[in-house]
């Protein structure tokens, strides 16, 4: 599942420094010749591809890039120093277009790849260059040349790092709208979401990850029931599932008159959890082994009884661990309210931590993920 991240920026190389007009004057040669040095070259604008970056988020904050100019030349044939090149780091996979023509000017496909987008202006020649037999004391020098400039559009096809899965109405779209800039439709009926929504979740230290909200899954999804099956194929490539369970009925169920109500309420949640996992497995066995974080949503409807929430978390933690056969991740299951935002900062960090531990391509391949196909979704 991919989504197109886009940024429009302006870049300009440095101006060349002007050449100098100067004449040698000292005790030995009172009428010495011209010795004005050349101006320095302006800095280039260089793009560098890096696997360390995942999105074009940084370009939201800084849109104009200008390399420094070259310094002017000076007497004694001294050249001005060149303006330093500036390097603009972009994620591997970024396509760079000329904004005005739409033409692709570079595809940044390899880690460390360099592309000089704009060359700095040449420094002007100093007057020392312009002597001739008839003109021995030129009183002029060249100005520096202007650096190139361009308006560029950066495009990156993003792969979703994590997918939010769960039954319709669990609050998947509400969750993505809370943690990213995505604004999907949210409504109190099933199958509100018809196509995936993707959002970039910004984290401290300029880090970020991409999360997808996919249409709700239901029993029989693997053979085409509901909508989610169409998208199961896409979530195969995400690194992590955020499995969202609807906790809205839990309080009512767990505090019923029967003393077994609590256990029955836990069973009910686990049953729903298992239905989704079964669907994933029937579609592709590997999906069941993909890392996941289980999250109970709609905490605001149960938090009036914190002791019950804690008891439920402990019980669910055990059940989930034994079903999955892996250790719980951090404080799993996370109990959150996508509506009020409570518990979300902690959940975001847990998701980021998991994604980062699966970042390398080799690991992705080991998980049996396929190469990206061509289907794209724009936010
Ligand atoms: N009380 C409460 N309601 C919530 C919370 N999160 C979501 N909801 C409500 O649950 C309903 C469904 O939310 P959505 O975000 O549309 O659910 P979804 O999982 O995206 O649903 P589909 O797109 O149909 O699969 C809406 O009425 C939301 O307002 C929550 O934390 N607390
Ligand atoms: Mg939805």
Summarize the structure.
With 379 residues, the chain is an alpha/beta fold. It is built from nine helices and 15 strands.
Structure notes:
With 379 residues, this protein is of the alpha/beta class. The protein folds into two domains: 2-157, Distorted Sandwich (Spo0b-associated Gtp-binding Protein, Chain: A), CATH 2.70.210; 160-377, P-loop containing nucleotide triphosphate hydrolases (Rossmann fold, 3-Layer(aba) Sandwich), CATH 3.40.50. 24% of the residues lie in helices and 23% in strands. It is built from nine helices and 15 strands. The protein has helices spanning 58-61, 172-179, 229-235, 250-254, 261-283, 285-289, 306-324, 344-357, 361-366, and strands at residues 2-12, 45-50, 64-66, 86-91, 94-98, 104-107, 114-118, 149-159, 162-165, 197-203, 207-213, 240-246, 292-297, 334-335, 376-377. Strands 1, 3, 5, 6, 8 and 15 form a six-stranded mixed beta sheet that branches. The protein has a six-stranded mixed beta sheet with strand order 10-11-9-12-13-14, sandwiched between helices. Strands 4-2-7 form a three-stranded mixed beta sheet, with no helix packed on it. Strand 10 and strand 11 form a beta hairpin. Helix 5 (261-283) runs parallel beside helix 7. It is elongated, with a radius of gyration of 30 Å. Guanosine-5'-triphosphate is lined by residues 168-174, 186-188, 190-193, 215-216, 297-298, 300-301, 337-339.
